[in-house]
Write a structure and sequence with these properties.
Put_Phosphate_transp_reg; mainly alpha; 7 helices; single chain; Methane Monooxygenase Hydroxylase, Chain G, domain 1; 88% helix; globular; DUF47 family protein; PhoU-like_sf
Length: 221
C-alpha cells in the first residue's frame, strides 16, 4: 500500500523525483573526483593544475548537491509526499550530503598539508579508496531502491556491510604498511589521519544504509 501510494505521489511530482536522483548522482560523481584527486596527488603532487581542477570540480559537485538539497527540502515540506515519508527522505538526503562534505574536506586538507606518502603505501591506499567507492555506490543503490523498489533494499544493504568491512580491513593494512616504513613518526601520524578520515566515509555510508534498512522494514511490516 505504501509503495503504491509513494509511486503515485512521485508521478505527480516528477521534479521532486528528478532532484532526489540528481542528488544521489552527485554522491557518485563526488567520489569519482575524490579518487582522481588521490591518483593525481600520488603521481604529480598537489602543486599542479590537474590537482587544483579536480579539487575545484569536487567543490562544484558539493555546491550543486547543497542546492539540490535545499530544493528537495522545500518540495518535501511543501506537501508533495506523505508526512511519514517526508521526514525519512529529508534525513536520508541530509546524511548523504555529509558523504560529499567529508570527501571535500579531506581534499582540502590534502592540498594544505601535502603529506608524504611512501611508495610502498600507494597500492593499499588506492585499494582502500576504491573499496570505499564500492561502499558508496551500493549505498546509493540502496537509497534509490528505497524510493523505487523496496524489495531490493536488503540486497544492497548487505553488500554495503561487506564492502565497509573490506574498507576497514584495507585501512588497517595501509596503516600497518605505513608504520613499518622508514618515514618519520610525525609524518606517519599525519598520514594516519587521512587513512582514518577516508575510512570514516565508508563508515558513514554504512550508517546511512542501516537507516534505509530500518525505514524499509518499518514499511514492509
Amino acid at each position: 500500500m505504501w509503495f503504491t501510494k509513494a509511486q503515485s505521489l512521485f508521478s505527480q511530482s516528477k521534479t521532486t523525483e528528478s532532484h532526489i536522483f540528481q542528488f544521489f548522482d552527485c554522491v557518485t560523481a563526488a567520489h569519482h573526483q575524490f579518487m582522481q584527486l588521490w591518483q593525481i596527488y600520488l603521481t604529480q603532487g598537489a602543486q599542479c593544475a590537474d590537482f587544483d581542477q579536480t579539487l575545484a570540480s569536487l567543490s562544484q559537485i558539493e555546491s550543486k548537491a547543497d542546492d539540490l538539497q535545499r530544493q528537495i527540502d522545500a518540495r518535501l515540506y511543501g506537501g508533495t509526499l506523505i508526512p511519514d515519508l517526508r521526514a525519512d527522505v529529508a534525513l536520508l538526503i541530509d546524511q548523504a550530503d555529509k558523504l560529499i562534505n567529508l570527501q571535500e574536506t579531506i581534499g582540502i586538507h590534502l592540498k594544505v598539508e601535502q603529506p608524504t606518502v611512501p611508495s610502498e603505501v600507494h597500492p593499499s591506499l588506492l585499494a582502500q579508496i576504491q573499496i570505499v567507492g564500492d561502499t558508496l555506490d551500493h549505498t546509493v543503490l540502496c537509497a534509490k531502491s528505497f524510493l523505487t523498489d523496496l524489495q531490493r533494499v536488503q540486497e544492497y544493504h548487505q553488500k554495503v556491510i561487506l564492502f565497509e568491512s573490506d574498507a576497514n580491513s584495507m585501512c588497517i593494512k595501509a596503516k600497518t604498511i605505513l608504520f613499518s616504513s622508514d618515514l618519520e613518526l610525525t609524518h606517519k601520524v599525519q598520514l594516519r589521519y587521512f587513512f582514518d578520515r577516508i575510512d570514516a566515509v565508508a563508515n558513514l555510508a554504512e550508517d546511512i544504509s542501516d537507516r534505509i534498512s530500518i525505514f524499509t522494514l518499518k514499511r514492509l511490516q
